[in-house]
């Protein structure tokens, strides 16, 4: 059985992407590699939900899941930035 192409480059920055039960046509200025990475994340997240959900539910739950992931990354970046800021402040205090 042939595997379905989930992401197709239609040329000129135009792509078709199968997410859930529906194929979407998207026009973007992103380069192909970056667009594919983003689309693959969306596909991977949406594939984690039961197939009997409506398309709207799949998209909404995918959005919530990706937002949660972004929030977790943001917290980690903030924690790293705080560590660097604290280390810099300590170095400045030692120089005084």
Can you describe what's shown?
The protein has helices at 32-47, 55-95; strands at residues 7-11, 14-19, 22-27. The chain is an alpha+beta fold. The chain has a three-stranded antiparallel sheet with strand order 1-2-3, covered by helices on one side. Strand 1 (7-11) and strand 2 (14-19) form a beta hairpin. The protein is elongated and about 60 Å long. It starts with 6 loop residues before the first strand and ends with a helix. The mean pLDDT is 91.
Give the secondary structure arrangement, pairings included.
Blueprint: E1 7-11, E2 14-19, E3 22-27, H1 32-47, H2 55-95
Antiparallel strand pairs: 1-2, 2-3
Please state the average pLDDT score.
Answer: 91
- Strands across the major sheet, in which order? 1-2-3
Structural class label: alpha+beta
Per DSSP E runs of 2 or more residues, the count of β-strands stands at 3
Brief summary of the model shown:
This protein has about 100 residues and is an alpha+beta fold. Helix content is about 60%, strand content about 20%.
List keywords for this structure.
96 residues; alpha+beta; three-stranded antiparallel sheet; elongated
């Amino acid at each position: 059985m042939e595997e379905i192409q989930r992401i197709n480059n239609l040329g000129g920055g135009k792509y078709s992407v199968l997410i859930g039960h529906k194929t979407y046509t998207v026009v973007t200025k992103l380069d192909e590699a970056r667009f594919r990475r983003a689309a693959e994340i969306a596909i991977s997240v949406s594939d984690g939900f039961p197939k009997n959900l409506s398309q709207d539910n799949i998209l909404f739950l995918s959005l919530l899941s990706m937002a949660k992931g972004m929030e977790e990354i943001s917290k980690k970046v903030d924690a790293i930035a705080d560590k660097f800021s604290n280390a810099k402040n300590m170095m400045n205090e030692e120089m005084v």
